[in-house]
C-alpha cells in the first residue's frame, strides 16, 4: 500500500497539479493586490471616490457607519459592493490567465519544429486511366 502511494505521488500529473496549486495561490495573492491596490483606486477616481467594497444595505433596522460596524453588531448585511469587487477580480484574473495562455501557446509554437512535408509520392495512373488504356488496347 505504501509503495502504491509512493508510485501515485511520483507520477508527473500529481506533481504538476501540486505545483499548479501552489503557483495558483501565489498568483491569486498577486492579482488580489493588483485589484485592491492599483485597479480599485483608478476605478474609484473615475467614479468620484466610490469604494465598491464598502457598499452595502442593512437588512433590517439600524444605522451603521460602515459595513464592519454593521457586521460587528450582528446585523444582516447585503454586501453588494463585495460582490462587485469579486466580479472585477474574476474578470481581471480571467484576462491575465488568457494572456498568459496565449503567450505560452505562442512560445510553444515558436519552439516547435515545423513539420517537413514529405514530397507527394506519384500515385500513378488512376483506376479509370488503366481501364481506358485497356479499352484502347483492345480496340486495336
UniProtKB/TrEMBL annotation:
<dbReference type="InterPro" id="IPR036019">
    <property type="entry name" value="MscL_channel"/>
</dbReference>
<comment type="function">
    <text>Channel that opens in response to stretch forces in the membrane lipid bilayer. May participate in the regulation of osmotic pressure changes within the cell.</text>
</comment>
<dbReference type="GO" id="GO:0005886">
    <property type="term" value="C:plasma membrane"/>
</dbReference>
<protein>
    <recommendedName>
        <fullName>Large-conductance mechanosensitive channel</fullName>
    </recommendedName>
</protein>
<keyword id="KW-0472">Membrane</keyword>
<dbReference type="GO" id="GO:0008381">
    <property type="term" value="F:mechanosensitive monoatomic ion channel activity"/>
</dbReference>
<keyword id="KW-1003">Cell membrane</keyword>
<dbReference type="InterPro" id="IPR001185">
    <property type="entry name" value="MS_channel"/>
</dbReference>
<dbReference type="Pfam" id="PF01741">
    <property type="entry name" value="MscL"/>
</dbReference>
<comment type="similarity">
    <text>Belongs to the MscL family.</text>
</comment>
<dbReference type="InterPro" id="IPR019823">
    <property type="entry name" value="Mechanosensitive_channel_CS"/>
</dbReference>
<keyword id="KW-0407">Ion channel</keyword>
<feature type="transmembrane region" description="Helical">
    <location>
        <begin position="79"/>
        <end position="101"/>
    </location>
</feature>
<keyword id="KW-1133">Transmembrane helix</keyword>
<keyword id="KW-0813">Transport</keyword>
<feature type="transmembrane region" description="Helical">
    <location>
        <begin position="17"/>
        <end position="35"/>
    </location>
</feature>
<feature type="transmembrane region" description="Helical">
    <location>
        <begin position="42"/>
        <end position="59"/>
    </location>
</feature>
<keyword id="KW-0997">Cell inner membrane</keyword>
<comment type="subunit">
    <text>Homopentamer.</text>
</comment>
<dbReference type="InterPro" id="IPR037673">
    <property type="entry name" value="MSC/AndL"/>
</dbReference>
<keyword id="KW-0812">Transmembrane</keyword>
<keyword id="KW-0406">Ion transport</keyword>
Amino acid at each position: 500500500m505504501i509503495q502504491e502511494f509512493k508510485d501515485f505521488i511520483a507520477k508527473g500529473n500529481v506533481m504538476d497539479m501540486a505545483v499548479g496549486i501552489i503557483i495558483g495561490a501565489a498568483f491569486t495573492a498577486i492579482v488580489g493586490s493588483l485589484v485592491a491596490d492599483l485597479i480599485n483606486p483608478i476605478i474609484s477616481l473615475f467614479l468620484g471616490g466610490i469604494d465598491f467594497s464598502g457598499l452595502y444595505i442593512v437588512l433590517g433596522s439600524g444605522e451603521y457607519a460602515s459595513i464592519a460596524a454593521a457586521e460587528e453588531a450582528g446585523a444582516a448585511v447585503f454586501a453588494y459592493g463585495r460582490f462587485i469587487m469579486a466580479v472585477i477580480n474574476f474578470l481581471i484574473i480571467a484576462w491575465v490567465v488568457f494572456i498568459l495562455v496565449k503567450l505560452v501557446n505562442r512560445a510553444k509554437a515558436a519552439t516547435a519544429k515545423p513539420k517537413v512535408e514529405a514530397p507527394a509520392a506519384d500515385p500513378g495512373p488512376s483506376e479509370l486511366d488503366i481501364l481506358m488504356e485497356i479499352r484502347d488496347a483492345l480496340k486495336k
